[in-house]
Amino acid sequence: xxxxxxxxxxxxxxxxxxxxxxxTFRRSGDPVATPVWIAxxxxxxxxxxxxxxxxxxxxxxxxxxxxxxxxxxxxxIVEGSDEVAAAARIVTGPGAESDEVRAAIKTKYGFAxxxxxxxxxxxxxxxxxxxxxxxxxxxxxxLIESVx
Length: 148
Hints:
By secondary structure, the chain is an alpha+beta fold. About 25% of the residues lie in helices and about 35% in strands. The chain is built from 3 helices and 7 strands; from the N terminus they run ββββαββααβ. It has helices at about 55-60, 95-110, 110-125, and strands at about 20-25, 30-35, 40, 45-50, 65-70, 85-90, 135-145. β1 and β2 (about 30-35) form a beta hairpin. α2 (about 95-110) crosses α3. The termini are close together. Residues about 1-10 and about 140-148 have low confidence and may be disordered.
């Protein structure tokens, strides 16, 4: 079950979960779920980072519709948990909103987030690839009861 908390007027605290299945939709309407870290942001939002060339980012280019649901590190949905319908948007480049997402992830996940971000930087330098991380901001628009 989702924990009840302060996010969205006490209705849903999806951002308090350690892992969330972030479901985006292909042009055909087929859902694609990916487990992500997520952290609360100001203004009833949550966010996470991903690669600019990731499937999540590509699918968000044509629809902002997403569904979030608590899951395990491997993406197994928590039994009895609620789905949360949301709108997501890509936040690119340096800026206040992008920095807020990165800072929230580092605050929530601590050393693990720092280590993963550092490993990504080293990997990009070794491969001579440009920086490609993109922040994604999520705004919950509705609560959908899951089928139990």
